[in-house]
Design brief:
This protein is of the alpha/beta class. The chain has helices at 16-22, 32-49, 62-66, 75-84, 106-113, 135-138, 164-172, 182-189, 200-209, and strands spanning 55-58, 90-94, 119-123, 142-146, 158-162.
Length: 210
């Protein structure tokens, strides 16, 4: 039989052992079985993101976790922009550009941003699990990623993890939100529960990947 080759940065081919894990009978997300699954996944995500902070899984694409445009700028220009415009609240950048594979120096960006009140938000959709990304050690405030690229899972899950600096900003934000309210998501996360119905099969596959 002819084998189909999926040659794209994402979605990627899903390993056979992950497909088998996802083919298990469906479980309900308000049961002890899902809670046990979620405990394992939470621990694995922290190790993957290299952070002691909570990683919030969201049932959406990486775009849902970012909800904004991503910019690319040299660290020197970033420092100048933050110095001359102190009202800047956040700096958004990609870690890797999917179409070229170029890695951006987010570690240098973090060194600049930490000297200000601005929050550094890094889009790691195409780099998580592939390139080194030490959130805590480098001082990155927010990292977002998706399931469909480096993790080699089907599309449908996104992840967002915040530093204490970013959580403080999230708690005081008055922007309208409902589904993508990370402060509310975190309350359920700490109980090893999903706030809304999650993509259970992909979470099972994620445990296999982690």
């Amino acid at each position: 039989m002819k084998k189909y080759q999926l040659m794209a940065p994402g979605p990627t081919p899903v390993p056979s052992q992950v497909l088998l894990a996802m083919a298990q009978p469906m479980i309900h997300h308000r049961t002890p079985e899902y809670e046990a699954l979620f405990i394992e996944v939470r621990a694995g995500l922290k190790a993957l993101f290299q952070t002691a902070q909570d990683v919030v899984p969201l049932t959406c694409s990486g775009t849902g976790a970012m909800e904004a445009a991503v910019v690319k700028v040299a660290p020197g220009r970033l420092a100048e922009a933050l110095r001359t415009t102190p009202r800047i609240k956040a700096v958004l950048t990609q870690h890797s550009e999917s179409s070229t594979g170029v890695l951006h120096d987010v570690r240098a960006y973090a060194e600049v941003a930490r000297r200000t009140d601005a929050i550094l938000i890094v889009d790691a959709v195409s780099s998580l699990g592939i390139a080194d990304l030490a959130m805590d050690r480098w001082g990155i405030d927010v990292v977002i990623a998706g399931s469909q690229k480096g993790l080699m899972l089907p599309p449908g899950l996104a992840f967002c993890t915040l530093s204490e600096k970013a959580w403080a900003a999230a708690r005081t934000s008055r922007l309208p939100r409902y589904y993508l309210d990370l402060t509310e998501e975190r309350k359920f996360l700490l109980k090893n529960e999903a706030r809304f119905t999650p993509a259970v099969s992909i979470v099972v596959g994620l445990r296999e990947v982690l």
